[in-house]
C-alpha cells in the first residue's frame, strides 16, 4: 500500500514539476520574443543539433534558446559543441531555481562569425554575463575596421561635385547599443578617424587632416577670447538620442549651468550639455553636416547653437570654397539654418548651390558668389558671424553676465586665413 501511495505521489510531483517547467519555458520564450521582435520556431530540431531539440529558435537573429527545469542538470559539454557546429548560432541557456531566472551559461564562436545583433542582445540584457574576452574581441574588430576606414578616406580623390554634397560615411558596425559604444569610446582606444553612433550604426566620417585641424584650432582660439565665463572643450562624446552619440569638434559650456539628473546628462560624466557645438567637415559631406542638426536639437539635449563649417577641396588654381551654416534651437524650425554663408576664395559649386536651395530660401544664402564682396580681409561686415549670447548662457543663474554684448563675433575670414597660411 505504501509503495503504491509513494508511486502516486511521485507521479503527481513529476506532473506538477512538468507543468511548472512548461510555464517557465513559455515565459522565457515570450520574453525573448518581445526582446528580439521575432516569432520563434518552438520545439525545433535543426540539422546542426544532430536530432537534439531546442526549446525555441529565432531564425532571423540566429539565436537558440534552451530552458532548463529545476530538476535538470545542464547538458554536458558535447551538447554545446553540437550548437557550435552552426557558425552563426548563439546559444542562451536559462535555468530555473527558486522561481528566479538566471542566465547560467552561453556559448559563442569567433566574433567574426557572431552577428552584432546577437552581441548587443547579450550586452543590453545580460551584460553581467558577457565575458571580457568577448567584448575585447569586438572592440578589436572595430579598431581594425577603423584602420580600414582610414585608408579608404585617405584614398578619396576629392573633386568639388556631387560627392562633397552627398558622400556617406563608412559603416563600421550596425545595431550597436549606446552603452557598448560608449564603453568603447571611454576606453580611449587609438582610433585615427572621427566616428559617431547614429541610430545604432557606427560610422567613420572624417580624417582630421591639416585643413580640419587648422580651422578647429583658430575657431577654438576665437571662442576662448569671448568670455572667462565660458569653458571651451575639444572633442567630447555627446548623447543625442537613445541609440546615437555624436562627437563635435568644439563644445562650449557656460560656467554654473544647471546640473541635470544623471539620466539627462551629456554623458557618463554627469555634466550638463554644452550650449554651443561645432562640426567641421572636410571629407564629411554637406548633407551629413546638415542632418546632424536634428539630433543636436533633440528632446534629449539642451544644446542651443550648432555651427557647421564645410571645407571644400582646392581647385586647380589653388582657390577653394568654404561654407558656414548656423542653426539655433529657438528658430521656428531648428533644423533649418538661420545663416548660410559662403566665405572661401572661390564660390560654391552648382551641386552645393542646388542642395542649399533645397533646405533654405535663396535670400538667406549669401556670401562669396552670391553678389556680396569677396572675403579677402579682416573685419568685412558681411563675414562677421554673430553668435547670440543669450543662447550661449542659457540656463545659467542670472542669465548673460554683465558687460557681455548681445552677440559674440566670429570673423570668417580668419578661418579662411588659417587654411591659406597653414
Automatic annotation (TrEMBL):
Residue stretches spanning the membrane: none
Species in which this protein is naturally found: Ambispora leptoticha
Protein name: 8472_t:CDS:1
UniProt-listed Pfam families: Uma2 (PF05685)
Residue span, Putative restriction endonuclease domain: 192-302
GO BP term (any one): double-strand break repair
Amino acid at each position: 500500500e505504501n509503495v503504491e501511495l509513494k508511486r502516486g505521489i511521485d507521479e503527481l510531483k513529476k506532473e506538477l514539476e512538468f507543468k511548472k517547467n512548461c510555464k517557465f519555458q513559455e515565459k522565457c520564450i515570450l520574453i525573448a520574443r518581445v526582446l528580439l521582435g521575432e516569432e520563434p520556431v518552438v520545439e525545433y530540431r535543426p540539422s546542426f543539433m544532430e536530432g537534439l531539440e531546442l526549446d525555441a529558435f529565432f531564425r532571423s537573429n540566429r539565436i537558440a534558446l534552451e530552458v532548463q527545469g529545476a530538476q535538470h542538470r545542464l547538458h554536458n559539454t558535447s551538447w554545446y559543441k553540437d550548437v557550435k557546429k552552426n557558425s552563426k548560432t548563439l546559444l542562451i541557456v536559462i535555468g530555473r531555481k527558486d522561481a528566479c531566472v538566471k542566465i547560467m551559461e552561453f556559448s559563442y564562436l569567433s566574433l567574426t562569425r557572431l552577428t552584432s545583433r546577437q552581441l548587443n542582445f547579450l550586452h543590453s540584457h545580460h551584460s553581467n554575463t558577457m565575458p571580457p574576452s568577448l567584448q575585447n574581441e569586438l572592440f578589436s574588430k572595430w579598431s581594425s575596421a577603423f584602420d580600414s576606414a582610414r585608408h579608404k578616406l585617405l584614398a578619396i580623390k576629392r573633386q568639388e561635385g556631387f560627392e562633397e554634397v552627398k558622400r556617406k560615411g563608412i559603416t563600421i558596425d550596425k545595431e550597436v547599443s549606446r552603452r557598448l559604444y560608449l564603453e568603447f569610446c571611454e576606453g580611449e582606444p587609438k582610433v585615427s578617424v572621427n566616428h559617431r553612433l547614429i541610430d545604432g550604426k557606427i560610422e567613420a566620417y572624417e580624417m582630421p587632416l591639416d585643413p580640419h585641424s587648422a580651422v578647429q584650432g583658430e575657431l577654438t582660439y576665437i571662442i576662448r577670447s569671448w568670455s572667462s565665463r565660458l569653458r571651451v572643450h575639444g572633442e567630447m562624446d555627446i548623447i543625442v538620442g537613445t541609440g546615437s552619440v555624436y562627437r563635435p569638434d568644439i563644445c562650449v559650456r557656460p560656467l554654473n549651468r544647471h546640473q541635470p539628473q544623471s539620466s539627462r546628462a551629456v554623458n557618463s560624466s554627469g555634466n550638463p550639455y554644452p550650449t554651443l557645438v561645432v562640426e567641421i567637415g572636410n571629407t564629411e559631406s554637406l548633407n551629413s553636416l546638415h542632418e546632424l542638426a536634428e539630433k543636436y536639437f533633440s528632446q534629449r539635449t539642451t544644446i542651443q547653437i550648432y555651427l557647421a563649417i564645410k571645407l571644400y577641396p582646392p581647385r586647380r588654381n589653388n582657390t577653394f570654397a568654404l561654407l558656414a551654416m548656423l542653426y539655433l534651437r529657438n528658430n521656428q524650425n531648428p533644423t533649418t539654418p538661420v545663416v548660410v554663408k559662403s566665405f572661401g576664395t572661390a564660390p560654391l559649386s552648382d551641386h552645393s548651390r542646388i542642395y542649399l536651395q533645397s533646405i533654405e530660401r535663396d535670400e538667406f544664402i549669401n556670401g562669396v558668389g552670391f553678389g556680396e564682396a569677396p572675403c579677402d580681409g579682416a573685419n568685412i561686415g558681411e563675414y562677421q558671424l554673430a553668435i547670440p549670447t543669450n543662447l550661449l548662457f542659457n540656463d545659467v543663474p542670472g542669465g548673460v553676465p554683465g558687460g557681455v554684448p548681445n552677440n559674440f563675433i566670429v570673423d570668417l575670414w580668419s578661418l579662411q586665413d588659417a587654411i591659406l597660411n597653414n
